[in-house]
Amino acid sequence: MVISTILNFIYPPPPSLFTTAMSAMSAASLANAGLSEARGVHLQYSKFTLTPNKKVPSRTGMLVLYSPAFLAGLASFFFFPDEGLRFLILRSAVSLHFFKRILEVLCVHKFSGGMGVDSMVVISLSYFLSTVTLIYSQHLSQGLPEPPVNLLYPGVALFLVGIAGNLYHHILLSRLRQEGDREYKIPKGGLFGRVICPHYLFEVIEFVGISFISQTVYSCSWTLGIFFYFLGRSYATRRWYTSKFEDFPEDVKSLLPFIF
């Protein structure tokens, strides 16, 4: 009963050991990373950067994070041409997501300190493999029966809301500090009065939109893993702010307004 209900919303899983394994690994590894963040074991970037043995400037590190995945999105237009509207929209959304992140690194974010090389390599490889698997899974769905419930256009709407909300809150964060200013402040404006990580919340919405556009098993497992990772990361972020600021508002949650 449950499986038949789920199959109303996704393509039948293709007979591919690679995508099956990646679906399980993506959800499990991202959820485990989120649990590690909540426990205080952080990937070395942003405010949680310590003093790793090897590090690169934050701007350089962030560009390395996103560029391979962006190039994989662009390459998919060459390797898999003319595979229908859904595939076109999916590849465009994924490529736009990482292109926006690169533009934010170049034009929006303010940086101080560095990024651990180990974290840079792990995150960059994760983004790249996830993007490749997402696109390949969609390619394998060609010729399979369409899901009875078409979520393509609701997915496009969620993706646009998510990418716009994420950009808006990144701009608000960038305005907190001047270039070279290392002092952290409590973010204000937008949904920062409800959650300390609205940029993560909108990124989750963005990836829910991508999973609706795709409607494959892998896209859903990837989005679920991302959600659990951001739960842990936002919890750790809120705990960091409460430790640094005695006047941090108690009613400001981590990721989900009024809930968590």
Describe the main β-sheet briefly: 2 strands, antiparallel
Q: Indicate the low-confidence ranges by residue numbers.
A: none
- Supply the number of helical segments: 8
The radius of gyration computed from the alpha-carbon positions, rounded to a whole number of angstroms, is 19 Å
Strand order of the largest sheet: 1-2
Whole-number count of domains: 1
Helix content: 55-70%
Structural class: mainly alpha
Distance between the termini: 31 Å
The beta-strand count equals 2
Mean pLDDT: 89
Strand content: under 5%
Overall body shape: globular
Strand and helix order: HHEHHEHHHH
Write the layout of secondary structure elements.
Layout: H1 2-6, H2 17-39, E1 55-57, H3 58-79, H4 85-107, E2 114-116, H5 117-140, H6 152-174, H7 198-214, H8 217-244
Antiparallel strand pairs: 1-2
Helix pairs in contact: 2-8, 3-4, 3-5, 4-5, 4-6, 5-8, 6-7, 7-8
